[in-house]
Amino acid sequence: MKIYDVIIIGGGPSGLMASIAAAEHGASVLLVDKGNKLGRKLAISGGGRCNVTNRMEIQELIAHIPGNGRFMHSPFSVFNNENIIQFFEGLGISLKEEDRGRMFPVNDKATTVVETLLNRVRELGVQIQTNTAVKTINYTEEAVSEVVLQNGGRLPTHTVIVATGGKSVPHTGSTGDGYPWAEKAGHTITELYPTEVPITSNETFIRNKTLQGLSLRDIELTVFNPKGKKIKKHDGDMIFTHFGISGPAALRCSQYVVKAMMKFKTSTIKMEIDLFPRVSDEALFQQLLAKVKAEPKKSIKNLLKGFATERILLFIYDKLSVDTQAQASTVSHDTLRAIVTICKHFEIEVNGTLSIEKAFVTGGGISIKEIEPKTMHSRKKKGLYFCGEVLDIHGYTGGYNITVAFSTGYTAGKSAAEQVVHK
Ligand SMILES: Cc1cc2nc3c(=O)[nH]c(=O)nc-3n(C[C@H](O)[C@H](O)[C@H](O)COP(=O)(O)OP(=O)(O)OC[C@H]3O[C@@H](n4cnc5c(N)ncnc54)[C@H](O)[C@@H]3O)c2cc1C
Fold first, then answer.
1. Cα of 15 to ligand 1 centre, how many Å?
2. What is the arrangement of strands in the sheet containing 53-54, beginning at the earlier edge strand?
3. What are phi and psi of 352, to 5 degrees?
4. How far is the CA of 268 from the centre of ligand 1 (A)?
5. Strand runs labelled E in 259-310
6. pLDDT in tens, 41-58
7. How many C-beta neighbours within 10 Å does residue 94 have?
8. pTM (2 decimals)?
9. What ligand 1 atom has the least distance to the C-alpha of 394?
10. What number of other Cβ atoms are within 10 A of residue 244's Cβ?
11. Measuring from each residue's beta carbon to the nearest atom of ligand 1, which residues come in under 6 Å?
């Protein structure tokens, strides 16, 4: 039986990049994955277009990785977003930059990204075994000794890179298998939770589906702690769903909802939507007043047409019991101010999120305190490396998680190969 220098478990973006880096640095590499295809999650990421990375300054990039982003300084010093861009462009994939620095393949096809990675893996002579589920890793007192397969097979080795991903969207193969192997080696797994996940609410207007399907553009969404202090604010788009809220701004806020519920041991959290984030409450009131003064005889409903989305306005009129046919001039200033208050501080009490399985990303994972950031080597067992979402690192959607996967994958692959080849 051939003994490989490096065995990589998991063929997502982190494992594929680790395979490439290890092979490029002279190691013989075996890549095993339990699925029948590699890169299944990558192929559906970024809405099927694959948001390969994000073109931002490193400091800003790290600020968009709220789950232990500072750890990424070291892996980024080895392989960063610009290296990812050069890597793909060097292999003939042109990339384009979209809003917020998001980089996509010009042809908008995630499968092109996956195919390019696979071609490079094959070109470098990496041995690939799909439909090969790993059951566990065995260790001696100090080091890795073998990989044990579900089918009973045993693969002796001194070097393993675990790239098994998190627990989200399990049909792509990410079912949290790597955590017990890490625990067995003495690692700590921090609490796992869903991030980048739609938020749920039991508000009557959600249960009644009053606003279901309504998209709001360029709003600001804020999460409050139980004492009424702002925890986090995100701008962007969102949508009301049949269970709560979703869309980019809601996804970015979701981890703060989860963390606040855990921290304050509470079952509900207050959020607020600001429909006019660039205008103050007073300025908005003055805008309404000016409209009323300009056309006092118009009904309030007709006067405010186009001022905000009609469904929101109807919701507000209903909530405030405003007679929509009333002449604008008869509507009191207090009522106008109340309309402004809802537009600027639309309250929604939320009570959680969808499950970790339905989340885009898994929060928590293998504690980064036990990983050497320059090499991704375990501080617990010799020859053991980790990369990608299995670690306690998570970013917002927008290419940040994929960037983490590529960067930590490359760093792990390179270090593992250098350690083996120079032995
Ligand atoms: C729908 C969707 C959209 C997303 N969009 C974005 C986005 O726009 N931007 C962004 O930054 N991130 C996005 N993400 C997140 C991003 O795709 C992941 O963070 C990334 O794929 C993690 O890479 P990974 O290599 O760590 O793990 P994964 O991609 O999860 O790969 C893990 C691999 O390990 C294999 N494996 C697991 N257990 C075993 C075992 N026991 N034996 C053998 N093999 C095993 C699995 O089969 C799988 O192939 C999205 C995720 C989803 C689900």
1. 10
2. 53-54, 102-105, 95-97
3. 145, -155
4. 30
5. 269-274
6. 999 998 999 999 999 999
7. 9
8. 0.95
9. 19
10. 24
11. 9-15, 32-35, 40-42, 44-46, 51, 133-134, 163-165, 168-169, 173-175, 177, 360-361, 388-389, 395, 397-402, 405
- For the segment 238-271, what is each residue's pLDDT rounded down to a tens digit? 999 999 999 999 999 999 999 999 999 999 999 9
Q: Which residue's alpha carbon is nearest to atom 2 within ligand 1?
A: 45
42 Cα to the center of ligand 1, angstroms: 6
For residue 73 the two structure tokens come to 């300084």
**Whole-number Å distance between alpha carbons of 55 and 109:** 19
- Backbone region of residue 100 per phi and psi (left: phi > 0; alpha: psi in -120 to 50; beta: other values): left
Query: Would you say domain 6-193+364-421 falls under CATH 3.50.50.60?
Result: yes
- H-assigned helices in 185-274: 204-207, 248-263
Residue 124, both tokens: 């470098």
The residues spanned by each domain of the chain are 6-193+364-421, 198-353
CB neighbours of residue 393 within 10 Å: 30
By C-alpha distance, which of 194, 43, 193, 32 is closest to 121? 32
